[in-house]
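Form 7-S
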Amino acid sequence: MFTSRNRSKVVVLLLVLVGLVMTTISASAYTDRAETLRNLEKFSRVYQKIVSSYVEEEDSKELIDAAIEAMLEELDPFSQFMDEDLLEDLMVKTRGEFGGLGIIISVRDDFPTVVSPIEDTPAARLGIRGGDKIVEIEGEGTEGWSVQDAVDLLRGPQGTAVNIGIRRYGVDEILPYEIVRAIIPVWSVPYYFRLDGDIGYIRCSNFGEQTAQEIETAMRDLESQGLKGLILDLRGNPGGLLDSARDVSDLFLDAGKMIVSTKGRNGERLSELHANHNFNYAKDYPLSVMIDGFSASASEIVAGAIQDWDRGLVVGRNSFGKGSVQSIFPVSDREALKLTTAKYYTPSGRCIHKDENNRRFSEDDSHPEYELETAPENPVDADSLPLYSTLKLHRPVRGGGGIMPDIIYEGEEISNVALDLIRRSAFFNFAVELLSEGDVDIDYTVDDETLARFYTFVEDLQDEDLTPEALVEEEDYIRYAIRREVIYKQFGLKEAARASLYKDKVLQSTLELMRSAETLENLFVASEDEATENSQ
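Output:
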């Protein structure tokens, strides 16, 4: 219904729009002022006619929301109107904590399902297990729910309780749980460890408020063990806070070095961020940054700054090219507008953003629970891209959007059979069945008896592509995937990652290169030799 309260909201909205327009007008010498005001007046008249004369009574808020959504669709997928839920989700991603149960969930067999409980959280302390299906939340059945549907009800203020019903493999009845929510940390560094040859490895999965501190802690620990080189893994990292990218870059760059600049409309430079040398680490040991086609935004800022200042190598596949700046403008106490206002440039002047990405990627796209094993198709003709030079050694680097690695390393391709098994949750469900019979130790391996049992398990999927011959051809991958899934559920993500190292072709190639370089200078020489070999 179009009430006086709704009409007031429209007037307020129009006044806000006029204010924004006038701000823009003052900045652009009142360009197109008359046309802009006419368009606002036209919008107001159309809106009022719809709510007063349309044959069906329409909801005022829905009409305004639809109009806003239509306007934003003309821009890019990164500009977004954020309601209360979206705004809260953004805050969770950036501040690094939320009130919840402490579980990683995914949809399996049409139900929200626990992938893994997080150590030392309410869910873990009550014995929630990987594979548990959440079939009820507060008495409501969850069949057909999305992950977000479940998350909306499972998250809540610290100290409040939520009632869920669990269906567990091997148990006939639904298990009732009342779980009191607690503050759950969201880690940017889910794991790190020392590899062969005293090479440190740090996995960074996002950029939030605490990311630099987490990487600093990992570096302190690794350096105390005797660090001769470091690999920073930014593959699959969609980015996050600009301040976090600055603070992470500051771990590796000398004071005063520019990290990134931004340019707005008409190429006007808006800002520059520089390292301020808050951290006192050795700046000269060999460093490699791994990226892929899913590395975006803050990941590209860090990789680009390290590459441009010759602080380390960038290896892997060319990054995504999400180099646009989103500013948050409050619209009300519970709503905001996320709007693209500028683009990022590396210290050497390369624009990170690829304009073609405006229509095919959102930073909120979900990723699998495990490390990404394949990158999206992202072919680049390097010779067609503009050439730049690094700022210290004057090495050639390419621009044109995204960060192109110094050395391109291709990951191992996964067969259609293996992808089909993953899609059908075969490894996940089989691991649940195995662990229902008892725990395993950290050195667990998949023997021939277990492999044969898996083949029998797959027969129940009734998939004509999963023939015995096809499965035998994938024996090596199947053994690896079963072990990884079992270790993940029994010991957590860090141990699952450690158990997967031998299968990570890009990491193994990077590690081999790092072992051969005792100094940063040696690393650049070795990389030039390898890049030459790869091009032949």
